[in-house]
Design a protein that fits this description.
The protein folds into two domains: 155 residues, Aspartate Aminotransferase, domain 1, CATH 3.90.1150; 230 residues, Aspartate Aminotransferase, domain 2. 42% of the residues lie in helices and 18% in strands. It contains 15 helices and 17 strands. A seven-stranded mixed beta sheet has the order 4-12-11-10-7-5-6, sandwiched between helices. A four-stranded mixed beta sheet has the order 1-2-3-15. A hairpin with a 2-residue loop joins strand 13 and strand 14. Bound molecules: pyridoxal-5'-phosphate (PLP).
Length: 401
């Protein structure tokens, strides 16, 4: 089977644009929280394809919904009605409190639409505010608008100049945000829990300062829930746990459970400033993607998954903290629900192959952070087994130091 992997790598290295440094593993099958590679080795998945496979792999209901839709009709474009967009928009409105949805295909597109709709809002009002306030350590995606509000120079520098109207503010410093937001600010954009930045939840005091600054100046608030949304933290959306009332919300990743779909949720006040032709997407919210997303929301809300995340999340936290306390290199454990980061005292890169060696999938973000985003269906027993394997991996990395 190593032949298979060698062949896959050789072909990719000739023909695939090399933008990702991949791990040398080929997964060929999944079931629940488990994946199998081409050699038949089993892995426990603590990453979910970077927070996407919320229902795990080969979930029976999702498989049925996708299969049924594929056998019926995949795509007709946004030039025609189909039965599922309205249903999905209604369900997202009930979950978020924002009345309307625009559908796209990814997180960065959802953010891009937030930025455009914010500009459109001020344009319609006849007060063309251009400025966005974003946070340090933020990550909002790779397209030009989303990249412009992403702080890390590593992502930005090769593509500059980006949007010139963005200011960055340090995270969790209430006075800094209050000083930065003015009557020139079109919108403040924030991840309620910063994901790529190292799993950093906003503090309630900082959230309150954002709310105050926005309400004083009229600036819109954009919550980027692409990673933290849809049950990941044990809440439908973490902005609500922080007491925030955003005007726009970006959703992606878990929404389709692996079928690409994103959504921008907007308040009625913002929706009223947007008109036919202002934005669009050929694929956005097609039949297949909407069927998948409806199935994910069925499981999340009707299927009791939200409550399960809150319960298993508490167990996960206890186990993770007890494991972390055994390893001197772990500096901090951050997160909630099933979104966790272990900050270690060094580059976390070697933890990833060490974990794979032990049969568990994790990733490294923000250099020193080992990030865990397991499927939301994970049970206590699977969490224990996966964290035991992570424990062994941390031990191996520590021993090699
Ligand atoms: C908070 C946040 N916003 C936006 C994005 C971009 O999403 P996508 O990669 O689907 O474009 C990500 C991806 O990691 C994210 O974590």
């Amino acid at each position: 089977m190593t032949m298979v992997l060698d062949d896959v790598i050789a072909r990719e290295s000739r023909h695939v644009l090399q933008t990702y440094r991949r791990n040398a593993v080929t997964f060929v099958r999944g079931q629940g929280v488990r994946l199998w590679d081409a050699d038949g080795r089993e892995y426990l998945d603590l990453l979910s394809g970077i927070g996407v496979a919320a229902l795990g792999h080969a979930h029976p209901a999702l498989t049925r919904a996708i299969t049924d839709q594929a056998q019926t009709l995949l795509h007709t474009s946004n030039l025609f009605y189909h039965p599922y967009q309205g249903q999905l928009a209604e369900r997202l409105a009930n979950l978020s409190g924002l009345q309307r949805a625009f559908f796209c295909n990814s997180g960065t597109e959802a953010v891009e639409a937030c930025l455009k709709f914010a500009r459109r809002y001020w344009h319609t009002k006849g007060e063309p505010r251009a400025e966005f306030i974003a946070l340090e350590e933020s990550f909002h995606g790779r397209t030009f608008g989303s990249l412009s509000v992403t702080s890390d120079a590593h992502y930005r520098a090769p593509f500059e100049p980006l949007l010139p109207t963005v200011k960055f503010v340090p995270v969790n410093e209430p006075n800094a945000i209050k000083a930065a937001v003015t009557r020139s600010t079109a919108a403040v954009i924030a991840e309620p829990v910063q994901g790529e930045g190292g799993v950093r939840p906003l503090t309630p005091a900082f959230a309150a300062a954002i709310a105050e600054a926005c309400s004083k100046t009229g600036a819109l608030l954009i919550a980027d829930e692409v990673q933290s949304g849809l049950g990941r933290t044990g809440y439908p959306f973490y902005f609500a746990a922080l007491g925030l009332k955003p005007h726009l919300v970006a959703v992606g990743k878990a929404l389709g459970g692996g079928v690409p779909i994103g959504a921008t949720l907007v308040s009625q006040e913002v929706a009223d400033t947007i008109t036919f032709g202002d934005h669009g997407s050929t694929y956005g919210g097609n039949l297949l993607a909407c069927r998948a997303a409806l199935c994910v929301l069925d499981e999340l809300v009707g299927g009791g998954l939200l409550a399960q995340v809150a319960r298993v999340g508490r167990h996960f936290e206890q186990r993770l903290k007890s494991i972390a306390s055994k390893h001197a290199m772990v500096r901090q454990v951050r997160g909630m629900g099933l979104m966790w980061g272990l900050e270690i005292d060094r580059d976390a890169t070697p933890v990833v192959p060490a974990a794979l060696q032990q049969g568990v999938i994790v990733n490294r973000t923000a250099e020193r952070v080992v990030r865990l985003l397991p499927p939301l269906i994970i049970t206590e027993a699977d969490a224990d087994e996966a964290l035991d394997r992570l424990d062994a991996a941390l031990g191996a990395v520590g021993a090699g130091a």
